[in-house]
Amino acid sequence: MESSGYGIILRMTFAIENMQESDWDAVRGIYEEGIATGNATFETTVPTWAKWDASHLESPRLVCRSDEGVSGWAALTPVSGRCVYSGVAEVSVYVAANHRGKGIGLALLQSLIAESERVGIWTLQAGILTENQASIAVHEKAGFRIVGTRERLGKLNRVWRDVLLLERRSTIVGVG
To answer: What is the pTM of this model?
Structure first.
């Protein structure tokens, strides 16, 4: 804590670390908060650990830890089982409601990019509901570009929703 002359400024320190199965309760809670916004995913319930674990790549899976515990998470889902797409993955990044706007989403995404390149991923993609402007901005800041809009891609609570498709191509993996 430090004083600015106008009040107290709180500086939160955090670390990006590999997700462990023991983090699942916190990850699930953050995922539930994202679902509750109505703008983070088409999912309406959080899957079990076993189902979530089976659907995501083993690495990278990251959490953001602060003094208050896990404040965010990021992981990758393969886009296809075909070997030609082995270097293409879809990004998920979620930040706890009380930690949004503190740079955690960008830190997680930047770490996810670095780790994805380390394991040979050459293209990351993200499907973001058009109303989720904060997530779109974070992805663009991390080097993603908007590829297009997938109109009326799915219904959430009986309402058709549009999804922006963003992608980031590695400048070090798959360039040759």
So the answer is: 0.89
